[in-house]
């Protein structure tokens, strides 16, 4: 079983990202489970979402405590939240940031990838300039960095799940796939 944990803030699309990724993985024949955990539901509050995938049915029903991969939709959570808690040695940390992977020496035990999903979302008019919605862009970069899912499956899941700016979301995923730094 492979487990992922998403760290974001309310309004960025962390929960939707986990659901869209689950749909893409299901299309590829995987058994999946996606669910969020959050306190007060408000824009900007920290949100955590989880995803499990396996080749066989998943019966485990608890939070993900030892993820294989971490996805960070808001760089400001780095240092404020222990995003690496329980992350397996050599696991992937994908961060939405303008910075390069080398700018995160504190994560040297892990594989770090970065993508400026904010800029991509803004270019595609996803959300606003002050509060871009980065979920589909982060999924495109995750497809490339994790090798868990094909980009075309992600785009197909976006087209089926995202009802607003569908094609712009698909374009954002493709652009992030091409521009992620590893």
Short description:
With 182 residues, this protein is an alpha/beta fold. Helix content is 32%, strand content 21%. It starts with a strand and ends with a helix.
What does this structure look like?
The protein is α/β, with parallel strands linked by helices and 182 residues long. The protein is 32% helix and 21% strand. The protein has helices at residues 14-27, 117-123, 135-146, 151-161, 166-179, and strands at 2-9, 31-38, 46-54, 69-72, 92-96, 111-115. A 6-stranded mixed β-sheet has the order 2-3-1-4-5-6, with helices on one face. Helix 1 (14-27) packs across helix 3, helix 1 packs across helix 4 and helix 2 crosses helix 3.
Q: How far is the first residue's CA from the last residue's CA?
A: 24 Å
How many helical stretches? 5
Structural class by secondary-structure content: alpha/beta
Shape: globular
* Approximate helicity band: 25-40%
Hey, roughly how much beta strand do the residues contain? 15-25%
């Amino acid at each position: 079983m492979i487990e992922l944990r998403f760290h974001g803030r309310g309004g960025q699309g962390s929960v939707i990202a986990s659901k869209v990724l689950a749909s893409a993985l299901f299309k590829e024949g995987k058994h999946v489970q996606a669910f969020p955990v959050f306190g007060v539901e408000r824009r900007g509050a920290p949100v955590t979402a989880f995803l499990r995938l396996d080749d066989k049915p998943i019966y485990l029903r608890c939070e993900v405590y030892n993820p294989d991969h971490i996805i960070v939709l808001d760089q400001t959570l780095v240092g404020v939240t222990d995003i690496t808690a329980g992350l397996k040695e050599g696991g992937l940390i994908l961060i939405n940031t303008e910075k390069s992977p080398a700018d995160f020496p504190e994560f040297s035990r892990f594989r770090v990838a970065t993508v400026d999903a904010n800029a991509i979302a803004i270019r595609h008019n996803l959300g606003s300039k002050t509060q871009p919605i980065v979920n589909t862009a982060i999924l495109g970069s995750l497809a490339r960095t994790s090798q868990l899912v094909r980009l075309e499956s992600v785009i197909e899941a976006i087209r089926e799940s995202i009802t607003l700016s569908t094609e712009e979301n698909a374009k954002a995923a493709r652009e992030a796939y091409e521009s992620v730094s590893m």
